[in-house]
Amino acid sequence: MRITTLMTLLAAPLALAACGSGDDAEMMDDTAMADGQMAGGQMPMDDGNMPMMGSDGAMQSASAEGTVTAIDADEGTITIDHGAVPSIEWPAMTMGFEADEQLRNDVAVGDKVSFEFATGESGSSITSITKK
Ligand SMILES: [Cu+2]
User: Fold this and answer.
1) 90 CA from centroid of ligand 1 (Å)
2) Is 42 exposed, middle or buried (0-12, 13-18, 19+ CB in 10 A)?
3) Which helix (H) or strand (E) holds 18?
4) Are 77 and 96 in contact (CB under 8 A)?
5) How far does residue 10's CA lie from ligand 1's centre (Å)?
6) For residue 13, what pLDDT is reported?
7) Domain boundaries, the chain
8) Terminus-to-terminus CA distance in the chain, angstroms?
9) Which residue, 117, 20, 15, is CA-closest to 60?
10) CATH 2.40.50.320 given to domain 60-131
């Protein structure tokens, strides 16, 4: 009887621990996916300091200024070394933004630009860009 009671007492915390580690594994999967995206050229920067945009997946719009460092027609991206974006709590960084062909044709590597973009869990897309 004594041993059975002890086992029962031990089983409850073990079950909780298993549940907790399951949640951790899910969170790690999400992080791994985000890192993979960054490694794929979407966000070539020191990751980990990038504030996430909340968990509801809503897109946010913001504007920023920076210098074009790369234009990738295959990826459909413009990489910009941009300044801080206080409205969405972004630090200054170099990162890739999705941009359609028209936008990519409007700028060249080395251009100083101001631009508007939308950002969310699926990435960041430039909506307008202007050479300074
Ligand atoms: Cu950024």
Assistant:
1) 6
2) buried
3) helix 2-39
4) yes
5) 47
6) 52
7) 1-39, 60-131
8) 80
9) 117
10) yes
